[in-house]
Amino acid sequence: MSTTATQRRLIRNDAPPRTAGRESIVSRSGAMLVMAVFTFYFLIPVWWLLVQSTKTRGEFSSTAPLWFTPDGFSSFVANLGTLFSYDSGVFVRWLVNSVFYAGAGAFLGTLVAAMCGYALAKYQFRGREVLFNVVLSGVLVPATALALPLFLIFSQVQLTNTYWAVFLPSIVSPFGVYLARIFAASSVPDELLEAARLDGSGEVRTFFTLAIRLMSPALVTMFLFQFVAIWNNFFLPLIMLRDQTLFPVTLGLYAWNSSIGQAPELRSLVIIGAFVSIVPLIIAFLSLQRFWSGGLAAGSIK
Amino acid sequence: MKTQSKMVAAAVAVVTAFALSACTGSSGGDSSTASSSCAPSSGKVDLTFTTWVPGMDKVVDLWNQKNPDIQVKFQTGPSGNAGTYQNFFNQIKAGNAPDLGQVEYDALPNFRVQDGLTNIAACTPVSGAQDKFVDWTWKQVTFDEKDAVYAVPQDTGPIAMFYRKDLFDAAGIPVPTTWDEYAKDAALIKAQGSYITNFPKTDVNWFAGMVWQNGGQWFKNDGNDWTVDLTGDKSTQVADYWQKLIDNGEVSKLASFSDEWNKSFNDGQQWTWISAVWGASTLETGAPDTLGKWAVAPMPQWKSGGDQAGDWGGSSTAVLKGSKHPYEAAKFAMWLNSDPEALALENKLGGLYPAAKAGADLDAFTSGQEFYGGQKIYDVFKEASSQVNPDFTWGPTMTQTYTDVSDGFGSALGGSGTLTDALKTGQQKTIDALKAQSIPVK
Description:
The complex is a heterodimer.
Chain A: H1 2-14, H2 20-52, H3 59-62, H4 72-122, H5 128-140, H6 143-156, H7 163-170, H8 174-187, H9 190-198, H10 203-214, H11 216-232, H12 235-240, H13 249-258, H14 266-299
Helix pairs in contact in A: 1-2, 2-14, 4-7, 4-8, 4-11, 4-14, 5-8, 8-11, 11-14, 13-14
Chain B: H1 6-15, H2 17-27, E1 45-50, H3 56-66, E2 70-75, H4 84-94, E3 100-104, H5 108-113, H6 135-142, E4 151-153, E5 159-164, H7 165-171, H8 179-191, E6 197-198, H9 204-213, E7 219-221, E8 226-228, H10 233-247, E9 251-252, H11 259-266, E10 272-276, H12 279-286, E11 294-298, E12 315-319, H13 326-338, H14 340-350, H15 363-366, H16 377-386, H17 398-413, H18 419-436
Parallel strand pairs in B: 1-2, 1-3, 6-9
Antiparallel strand pairs in B: 3-12, 4-12, 5-10, 5-11, 7-8
């Protein structure tokens, strides 16, 4: 944004005003080009995944990597069948686990973060900024770096290799708290809260009936962020889990992929499994897209 | 087992490097576990066993049916270098490691040095076990220490030469029996527009298998100090040999086990593959169009009439540190790796080639193979298995050594430096790594 603004200012200073419009078209098509390149770049792997999942094992090396084979559809169905029945349907279990970790984790995580952010934005108390800064510094620490300390702590309380081991750390979202605070500060007017209090609404009720609705665009954003983060989380489950019935789909696919040497038939399963595993993310994005972009913009206002 | 996901493994290794150093820091690298008594526990015993061999849960089920008093819980994860070893170390540190874990031979010294293994020599199930396993594997699990057994050999990867019988016959090129002949054939095959084989830059353990065959030794441990010798005569000889093939453009430089790699085998671009026994199924699935055209012969020899083979891959079942039931764990490990029924199932579901001598006589290994024109290829591997030098020792930081040498191999294939240079760099970096972990090195 600022670059274009600067450019425009420069252009205005150096060149006659009437060329400004033409330059702007050039820069606009330039931007479109860049976006097209990036879209291509990001979608090609997905396309590859789709095409490869319609192939039999022998066809991986003998057919064009980016186009379908004539009997692609039947191979696709056959691959799906194998995927869902392999090892007594363990892949379905992984999918269900992932939906649980990501769905419940993102829901609770969003709720907790929303409450924290709201409290930080709307209540005056000692140490508020300190607390907020501590939470903010949490954004800077990568989750991966915390996995091992978490493992050692969970070992102390014998919670490794359980659902809790992955679920509990997933509901913590410092970035969500940050987003919630910014958004609560800008979108929940103090006057409204005053009015609610005057009408006799308790603080908890005010939060759940009033604030949460005003904050809902940001909440969707936070939910999606958190959902994707947990869905893609790989390192924590890798360290915590040993029982494959607890695995999320990322770890399960990774384990399969690492065993291709011994069981080459897993290769096609990993590919179609990876494809199936991104479908829920695509659905989540498309269905919540409107809120998502709205929330993003709103979060950046302050 | 092959190390395919090097990149991921490296990433995992880097991220958890501090954990590793924490582990070594506390154990000091040299603590001898005396083989204390090993008595059976009373009552019902529950064990945990972590492995990444596909289908191993079925084998565990079989054991559980037969042994109501010793119940084994199957646990799994990605292959060793892809994360499970690091998990073992974390778990050993946290005191909740599984009783038994799958550990490849080249990773065992790392576990030994970091004091992650339980000595089960005193457990009666392993007494006399030495005779049941192929000779060279036993030294891998005892480290030649007195009164010591740290793991039970599971599977091996004796190396032989897969070759396109049809192409060699049609072109009238003799099938090589020595490395000299192999090099001559390489030139003839290049003239035909194909490659004699592919040089796998990331499979440093394959290269180690070549050195192994030549009688080379990369590591030695005199009971206290480690010696690193990646650049010894035998090792350098192997490096120079392959460097020449690379310089002449007689070998391809594809990434192993990639799509292009499979394709080039499927299209008949590759005439031979010097590989381990498990490569048989890799070829079958990767190059389906070449059905019936392959055959297997012993590895080319450095001396005419020689009878040396190398090994590429293989695992053991180790009793990890902290197991409360070493006797039962040892009993299970012995059954798992020597009972004919278990071995047959492991081969069928997981593709394992057993380290137990009796395993070579399983039905699966005595019949002719359709993909190899009906040849009884496992006879070749059985013989190769008996020709593997038992004195080859792996180092305690193989992941690091592999990565460093592999980087050098990559440069050499790209035209800067040579394979020997890569070994020199690997040598220096390995010594540095040992010192950094305060492992005594000469």
